[in-house]
Every structure is written in C-alpha cells, then in structure tokens.
Amino acid sequence: METSFIWSVSACFFLVSSFSFVRSFSNPSLLGVHPLDEKYFATEVIKCKDDSKSFTRDRLNDNFCDCVDGTDEPGTSACPAGKFYCRNIGSTPQFIFSSRVNDRICDCCDGSDENDGSLNCPNTCIMGGNVEYKTDHRFSRVQDRGYVDKKQTENRVSLDDFIQKLKGLKIIIIVQLVIASVFVVCRIFHRRARSKRRRHR
Q1: What is the distance between the alpha carbons of residues 122 and 116, in angstroms, rounded to a whole number?
Q2: Nearest-CA neighbor of 166 among 107, 123, 98?
Q3: Per the confidence metrics, is the pTM higher than 0.85?
Q4: Cβ-Cβ contacts under 8 Å for 46 (sequence gap 6 or more)
Q5: Which of 29, 39, 78, 98 is the most buried (most CB within 10 A)?
Q6: Which residues of the chain have pLDDT under 70?
Q7: Which residues have a Cβ under 8 Å from the Cβ of 171 and sit 6 or more positions away?
Q8: What is the pLDDT of residues 180-196, one digit of tens each?
Q9: CA-CA distance, 164 to 59, in Å (whole number)?
C-alpha cells in the first residue's frame, strides 16, 4: 500500500511537471510576458516601452537587445534592464531579472525561466513555490513608459537580486524539509506495518 501511494504521488508530480514544461514551450515568442502585455506584443511592429525605437515581431526574444529597456527580450537574458515574468500557475506570479533566465538555476517555481532545453526544472508551484509577489510592475505595464536612470536601476537590481536569491534559498530549504518529512513519515508507517506483520505470525 505504501509503495502504491508513493508511486501515485510520484506520477502526479511528474504529470504536473510535464504539463508545465509543455505549456512553457507552447508559445515561446511570448515567454516572460505579463498577461496584461500580451496584446501589446500581438502587432507585427512593436514599439519599445521607452519610445526609443520600434522592432518587428520576428525580433522578439531573438537573444539580441534592440530596446534599452528590454522590451524586445522578455524571455531571454540579452537585455540587462529586462524583467522576466514567471506565471507560476498554482502559486504566486513574480518578476525576476532577465539575467536569471537560462542561468541553469530554477528561479520560477514553474521552471519557465530555464527555457533553452539545457535544464528541465520541476514544477514546484503545487508545493508552495514562490511565496511572495514582487510588486514592481514598471517593466510590465504598457502605460508606464518613463526612462529609468541606469545607475539607479543597477543599484536596485543588485539589491533586488540579492533579495530574490535569499527567497529562492528559503524556498529550497522548505522544499527539502517537506521531502524529508514525507520520507520520515513513510519510513515510520513502513516499519509499523512490518512490526504488525511480525506480531501476527
């Protein structure tokens, strides 16, 4: 019975992870885009949010930074000022810095930030994933097109990046504790079941 329970939980986790992985590649050109901005990227010619220039849709997520503000690269790490939107379905959505995209570290609990195929991140959103929502919407909203001072952005990026790393570490520790607890509970039930069988003999 214990083995069938473990296999059932493993199968459910695998299915959810597979669904997330397939979903992240279903529309790769809009990867890293906030749902409110999907219409903004639907036209053939797209304007940078800082109004500096325009680019064609085929240059969206082409791994070359055309816009200073990172508008054209929401799903890659090409632009230093860019933000990547983690949908984290089943948990709390969040923005991460584009420098954390395809860095071989799973920053989004749905694994969407590692989209180049070199790493398959499991979907941990169902286990609590990202706990807090990042409320900085500056790079997400179409209406907000103001230019940001580069030095101010760099300072905030380094502090925010440090905070995000600490949150990620906290999440990893929580996930490890949950897995260890489940293992211990399963082991205890297994030993009790064996001792009951021995007593009945």
Answers
A1: 15
A2: 107
A3: no
A4: 40, 54, 55, 56, 57, 60, 71, 72
A5: 98
A6: 1-29, 127-161, 201
A7: 109, 124, 128, 129, 130, 131
A8: 999 999 999 999 988 88
A9: 29
pLDDT of residue 8: 53
| Helix, strand or coil, per DSSP, at residue 111 | coil
User: Given phi > 0 = left and psi -120 to 50 = alpha, else beta, which region is 160?
Assistant: alpha
Distances (CA, A) of 121 to 19, 125, 175: 12, 11, 14
SS3 assignment, position 57: helix
* Closest C-alpha to 68, from 56, 87, 55, 86: 55
Q: Residue 114: name the closest of 27, 176, 13, 21 by CA.
A: 21
Predicted local distance difference test score (pLDDT) of residue 64: 93
C-alpha span between 142 and 38 (Å, rounded): 10
Amino acid at 20: S
Residue 158 is predicted with a pLDDT of 65
CA 90 to chain centroid, in Å, comes to 12
CA 12 to chain centre: 20
pLDDT at residue 144, as a whole number: 40
DSSP 116-160: SSS------GGGT---S-----TTT-SS------HHHHHHHHHHH
pLDDT for res 72: 92
Residue 73 and residue 9: Cα distance in Å, rounded?
Answer: 37
